[in-house]
């Protein structure tokens, strides 16, 4: 008997994950961002990461068009950014502190890490697409991570 979506979600909620916001831009230069917990490292040499993006989102189309994205790993003090980029609101970047990298992609400020990536491989992930990105630039800052566990934000202290 197949697993229901509710059973699957309940099981996955028991796995704590870090919280990221993936940012990019589309062909017209509009900025896009989406909260993503489906993020993993893949390889050290070359430096590869993967993200899984719902096919129905504007961010999916923008990453597909541009072939570049930034993974912004949120700090324990950035739960509001996670909520903002998870919401279906226009102008997600209004009032959000960020800079633009050399490709014009938004890099969120005050994150514990930012990884600027170029799409290297694309795979089928059911209702999501698996984008494997080669990391071209990183910035690393101090701070504690924002963690998501059992449908709530958690903080891991030092």
Explain what the structure shows.
This protein is of the alpha+beta class and 158 residues long. It has one domain (5-155): Roll (Pnp Oxidase, Chain A). The chain has 3 helices and 12 strands; from the N terminus they run H-E-E-E-E-E-H-E-H-E-E-E-E-E-E. The strands form 3 sheets. A 7-stranded antiparallel beta sheet has the order 3-2-6-9-10-5-4. The protein starts with a helix and ends with a strand. The mean pLDDT is 95.
Which structural class do the helices and strands define? Answer: alpha+beta
Main beta sheet: strand number and arrangement? 7 strands, antiparallel
Q: In percent, how helical is the residue content? A: 10-25%
Number of domains: 1
CATH class: Mainly Beta
Quaternary state of the chains: single chain
Based on CA atoms alone, the radius of gyration comes out at 15 Å
Report the end-to-end length measured between terminal Cα atoms.
43 Å
- Number of E-state strands: 12
**CATH second-level architecture:** Roll
Uncertain runs? none
Report strand %: over 45%
Task: Describe the structure concisely.
Helices cover about 15% and strands about 45% of the residues.
Features:
158 residues; alpha+beta; Pnp Oxidase, Chain A; seven-stranded antiparallel sheet; three-stranded antiparallel sheet; 16% helix
Blueprint of the fold:
Elements: H1 5-12, E1 17-18, E2 20-25, E3 31-36, E4 39-43, E5 48-54, H2 58-66, E6 68-73, H3 79-86, E7 98-100, E8 106-108, E9 113-125, E10 128-140, E11 146-149, E12 152-155
Antiparallel strand pairs: 1-11, 2-3, 2-6, 4-5, 5-10, 6-9, 7-8, 9-10, 11-12
